[in-house]
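Bumping with the actual sequence this time:
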Amino acid sequence: MKILIATEKPFAKVAVDGIASLVKEAGHTLALLEKYTSVEQLYEAVSDADALIVRSDKVTKEVIDAAKNLKIVVRAGAGYDNLDLEACSQRAIVAMNTPGQNSNAVAELAIGMMIYMARNTFTPGTGSELKGKRIGLHAYGHIGSLVAKLAKGFGMEVYAYVRDPKKYHLEEDGVHTALSVEELYENSDFLSLHIPATAQTKGFIGKTLLEKLPKGACIINTARKEVINEPELIEVLEKRPDLKYATDIATENHSTMVEKFGNRVFATPKKMGAQTSEANINAGLASAEQIINFFKSGDRTFQVNK
C-alpha cells in the first residue's frame, strides 16, 4: 500500500524517519509531500495513495475526489475538523485522529498562558500567583485531565464540567465536579477550554456564560476559536475591564481587540499547542501505526466517522 504524508507544515525529520521505518518494516511504500504551496499539488500527490497522513492540512471533498485509491486518512492530532467526514464516509474511507499524542504539549501551553496572563504578560506591575486560585476545566479528556494534574501541582483548586461524570474519575483525581456549565464558570478564576468545535459547540461560549465569571477571571482557549462567540466576547470584555482572554488561535478581530484591551488579551502567533518536538514525533508515529494496524487487521480503534 502507498502511504502519503502530506504536510504543509512538515513533521520533524526524526518523526518522518520513524514513520518511514515503520512503513518499510510493514511492507508498505511511503511518499512525502512537504511544504506544498497549492492544493493542486496535493490533488496530484494523493491521486494514487491508499492512505494519507496530515497535520492541520484540509482534507476536503475535492481532495477525497482526487484520491481514487484512498482507504484511510489520519489526522496527526486530536482535533479533526480539518477532515470532511461526510465526504470520507460517502466513499467508505476511514477517518481517524490520534488522541492523546499532543495532550501534554497543549496542557503545558495552557498552564504557561495562565502564568503569562497572571503576570500581566510580563510587563511591569504587580501580577498574581496561580497558587490558591480556582481553575475550571470545560471538558476533561486527555488534555483537561493533564491540565488538572499540573494545576494541582501549582496548588490550584480544580473544577471540571463533563456531560457524563460516570465516565470519568474526578473525585479520585481530586477534582470538584461542577453540576452545570454555569456552575463551572461561576467558580473559575481561570477558565480553561478543551471542548471540540462541533455543530453544537460553535459559538457556544458567549455573553451568558462569560458574564458569570468571577471578578478578575481569565479565559484560556487552547481548543478552537470557533467555540467562542467573538462579538459577545468583545462585548463582555468592554463591560468587564477585570476580565482577560488568552487564546492559541487569534480571533478574527484580534488586532482590534489588542487596540481596545491591551495586554488583557493575548494570542499566539500561530497555533502552538502541538508545536513541540515530542508531540510532533508522537503524533506522527501514532498515525503510521494506526494505518499499519488498519491494513493488517482492520483495526478502527480511533475512527471518527461512520
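The C-alpha cells above came from a reply further down the thread. The CA atoms of residues 116 and 122 lie 6 Å apart.
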